[in-house]
Amino acid sequence: MPVDALQVFAEVGNVAKALAVFALSIVLAYLVRLSIERRVMKTLPRQIAVPLVKSIYYTIIFLGGVGALAAAGVNPSGLLVAGGIAGIILGFASQAVISNLLSGMFLYIDRPFTVGDPIILGDIEGIVENITVFSTRVRKWDGVIARIPNETVFRSTILNPYQNPVRRFEHHIVISHDSSVEEATRIALEVMEDDVMVLARPGPEVLVLEVRESGVVLSIRGWAPSQYWFSTKNRVLRRIKERFDEAGIRTGLPPRLVVFEDDHPRGG
Known about the structure:
Layout: H1 3-43, H2 46-71, H3 77-93, H4 95-110, E1 118-121, E2 124-131, E3 135-140, E4 145-149, H5 150-155, E5 158-159, E6 166-175, H6 181-194, E7 205-211, E8 216-225, H7 229-247
Antiparallel strand pairs: 1-2, 1-5, 2-3, 3-4, 6-8, 7-8
């Protein structure tokens, strides 16, 4: 058989092997994707699972393409070097994207909050509106939507008042020295014990925190269901103020009379 014919057969054989390798890589990527989808889709949210599955799928196909080039007799080193340079450039460009993606996955696994929870995240407070693969959206108390990158969320201290079913409220009240501490304590405890949302266990309490020149500082504490914490605290404090007024218990700093002396006496 002529040399040229042998060379043609060899090249055809290499092409056939390359096509076979690439076809096998597609089949393998498809099978791996199906296997991962069955497990991941049940444990991770769709917005996180879909990008993860696609990344694995196309990575297998890319490696299969490199293997196909090698089977065809093409040295893939040049392609890998070029791909490596491009990968470095893309890596710097997509570093934030990947970081936010991984942070979103870790947040889902850790579950510090869910959609609808009120959270305190640094200087941002509000209700969680949406959690995506790259960011978390929080509707602040004034109605403004704040989009926070998941990397920032993951690195921050998160306070979730709803994570515990009950929450303690506390407020400091200053009463005047001529008011009765015993009477103020009795009234505050009665108001909290009469409120249906204030828990009996742990029960409410009133403590004397400090005695100042301006008055006696009382700490009024009680526990309420987390969902009704704010309304319960507001109602209890308003009722305590009304009862204090009825009993003649003065709160707040006493008024002060400021007298300015005239440096220049009147008259001759």
